[in-house]
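call fold(seq) -> tokens
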Amino acid sequence: MARETIATLRDKAKALREEFEQAAAAAREPAALQALRDRFVGRRSGAVSALLKSLGTLAEAERREAGQELNALKADIESRLEDAQRLVESLARQQALRRERLDVTLPGRHPFLGRRHPLTAVREELEDIFVAMGYEVYDGPEVEDDYHCFEALNMPPDHPARDMQDTFYLDSRAAGDGGPLLLRTHTSSGQIRYLLENPHPPEVRIISPGKVYRRDSDVTHSPMFQQIEGLVVGPGISLGHLKGTIEAFLHALFGEQYPVRFRASYFPYTEPSVEADLGCIVCGGSGQLPGGPCRVCKQTGWLEILGSGMVNPAVFEAVNARLGRTVYDPEEVTGFAFGMGIERVAMVRHGIDDIRLFYENDLRFLGQFYR
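ret:
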């Protein structure tokens, strides 16, 4: 190997620095920077590394000084490459942000096609409230038999309460051991199915939403409508638990500023039975509006929201008889049930006095809920 002098080595280092400066100015991509790193400071074929290897040809007195200068050159190039790498990465992030920029000051864009029906939105809201309270959502069949829809709920064939739930019966030849088939009149039939399907342990906390059918049709009734019913069973369940649950639910749904009251009522499958009323959200409980009487609450200041009560022991006995053993002992467990129409909740919330509007598919009406 030809013997180097310190002057020659310094000239080569100077030329190498100038060459790096020109190449670094043109490098704008990560791959180009890596190529520069390999070219100048790579361990095997780097130009600076090659100069360091030539130190052995210098006189011993010059070797230390030249070595310090070349190591400084190598450190400077590595530092410049790291700065360039950070700059390239920063520019890449800025470009990505410009491409993917989300302007949060713009109004939200609705989907081009398709909206959730207002009743679907209300049902999902009701389910969310009860799920947050620890309830399970149970979906029963819409085609039921007489046992699950009536008999197990303390309504035998000659019970007058059946007149209030007159419905649509199907071909009697399709009847099974549960009696004639029909379109269910309430989702309480789903509660019976849950008690029969999940007898261990005898503790229950469910809601059962879905479509139900009755032969009614006027401004406040529809042949098909939606209900959501709840059932809680366990040791020591009391009327106080029922009232606390209903109040918490209604306040979560409408707001704590509206009072809740309970009135005695009657349902064959609960005893005692109570109706829950909410202070009118339209007139504020006064019964009067600036333009005249409040039509929504009929000047009473109260809105009937739901029916409820403690589970009648006859319901537990009917389920036990079907199971062939005592699982829900009325002496050991109690429970409460409640139910409401989903349309009723939507009508109260929006001040709507004709249930048929929900099913006429008039976009002039439905469009009010999508703004």
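The radius of gyration is 39 Å.
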